[in-house]
Amino acid sequence: MKLDQKAFDTRKTTLNGWYRLHVGELVTTLEVGEYTPPMQRDHDSLHIVDHLWKVHRLELTPTIRERLSLLKGSEKLSAAAESQLDAYLTALDGNRDELLKSWHSLRAKVSEMNKPWEEFQRDKDNKASYERWRTWTFTERVGSYQEALFDCFCHVQIEDADVILIT
Question: What's the structural domain count of the chain?
C-alpha cells in the first residue's frame, strides 16, 4: 500500500506528536484507542507500546503499569502490541520465570511453523493445521516479539544459556 504525500505527512506529524507526549498522555492515547486515518490500531499501537518501553520505561510507575495492564485483552491494542506490552510489564515486574516461559513458548511455535510446507499439505483435510501455519506466518511479528523478549532479558539480566545460545 503506497501512501500519498498527504497521508505520509499526516503520519509523520502524528508520530512526531506522539513522541513528544508525556507518559500519561501516551497511555491515554492507547486507552482511547482511536486512530484517525492514515493511522491504524494494528500498526500504531505497537509504535506507542515500544516507545513507552524504549524511552520511558523508568517512568512507568505502578499506577501507569496498572493502566497499561487494563489494556490487555481489550480491542485497544493490536495482538503484537499486546504481546510485547505483556513482556515489557513482566520485565518491569522482574518476573524472570514468566519471561523464560514466554521465550520457550515462542520457540515451540517457531519450531512448529518451521516445518516444511509439504508436511502441512500431507493431511489436506487438516484445515486447523494449515490455518495455524497461515495465521502464525502472516499475523505474528515473530522477529519483533523475539527482539522485545531479548530486550526484556537484558532488563532483568537473564543469562540462561538455553536462551542466549539459540540452536
Answer: 1
Query: CB count, 10 Å around CB of 122?
Result: 9
What separation in angstroms does the CA of 136 have from each of 71, 141, 142? 23, 8, 8
C-alpha to C-alpha distances, 21 to 27, 41, 51, 59, 122, nearest whole angstrom: 10, 18, 11, 13, 52
d(CA 120, CA 131): 10
pLDDT in tens, 52-97: 999 999 999 999 999 999 999 999 999 889 999 999 999 999 999 9
pTM: 0.77
Q: What are phi and psi of 115, to 5 degrees?
A: -60, 145
- Residues 143, 84: Cα–Cα separation, whole Å: 11
| CB 49, CB 27: distance < 8 Å | no
Give the structural domain span for 154.
5-164
